[in-house]
Amino acid sequence: MPTRAEVAAIIDHTLLKPEATGAQIADLVAQGAELGTYSVCVSPNQLPVQAPAGLHVATVCGFPSGAHASSVKAAEAADSVAKGADEVDMVVNLKLVKEHDYTAVEADIRAVKEAVGEKLLKVIIESAALTDDEIVAVCRAAEAAGADYVKTSTGFHPAGGASVHAVELMRATVGDRLGVKASGGIRTAADALAMIEAGASRLGVSATVAILEGLPV
């Protein structure tokens, strides 16, 4: 079983509630640093974030629906990077996924990848709303577009969040070429361990304290 520190090191400690205040984000940063998480993940309106050395700053793009013009997503991502974001988690255009227009899905992702440059791009596919075939196809489109990670969920979609099955399928599709981030509904140590076992290399969680308390030191 991985230790508390090992799991913390792959966690994006997340607060994406639209009503979150600057003071709450400051608390998130302090807590992330204390717990040893990989990053904090915040909304774009919270940037820039003053984070200590070693704690990365992630943000979201086209969130939570993905139903934005590619040019708008690219502009948002570029602005976030300019304000210090190390990583950007973008939401795919689910309309295009459901229409199986994967050439357009790839172009949407590529526009954001070009905007973030060398910064890390994660692509949120909203796996609970997709069929297995759609999960595979959108993961392939993300890889072709130059993304660094595929990510299960926003945590805001009524279809639900991460599942072991989706993570396994995403990992089988991208192999070791891309990272896989599990996010949405991961609230306990058992949840986190199941996602890691399924192939997740990053976890997006808000229940970080509860998760880590359930793990051995």
Could you please describe the fold and organization of this structure?
GO terms for molecular function: deoxyribose-phosphate aldolase activity. 42% of the residues lie in helices and 17% in strands. The chain has 217 residues and is of the alpha/beta class. The protein is globular.
Provide a brief overview of the structure:
The chain has 217 residues and is of the alpha/beta class. It is 42% helix and 17% strand. Strands 1-2-3-4-5-6-7-8 form an eight-stranded parallel beta barrel, surrounded by six helices.
Secondary-structure topology with pairs:
Blueprint: H1 4-8, E1 11-15, H2 22-35, E2 39-42, E3 56-61, H3 70-82, E4 87-91, H4 94-98, H5 102-116, E5 120-124, H6 132-144, E6 149-151, H7 164-174, E7 179-183, H8 189-198, E8 202-205, H9 208-213
Parallel strand pairs: 1-2, 1-8, 2-3, 3-4, 4-5, 5-6, 6-7, 7-8
Judging by the overall fold, what is the CATH architecture? Answer: Alpha-Beta Barrel
Beta-strand segment tally: 8
Q: What does the largest sheet look like?
A: 8 strands, parallel, barrel
Q: What is the radius of gyration?
A: 16 Å
Beta fraction of the residues?
15-25%
Number of helices: 9
Spans where pLDDT lies below 50 across 5 or more residues: none
**Whole-Å distance between the termini?**
11 Å
Strand order of the largest sheet: 1-2-3-4-5-6-7-8
Classify the fold: give the CATH topology. Answer: TIM Barrel
In one word, what is the shape? globular
Protein name: Deoxyribose-phosphate aldolase
Active site: 89, 151, 181
Organism: Actinomyces glycerinitolerans
Family: Belongs to the DeoC/FbaB aldolase family. DeoC type 1 subfamily.
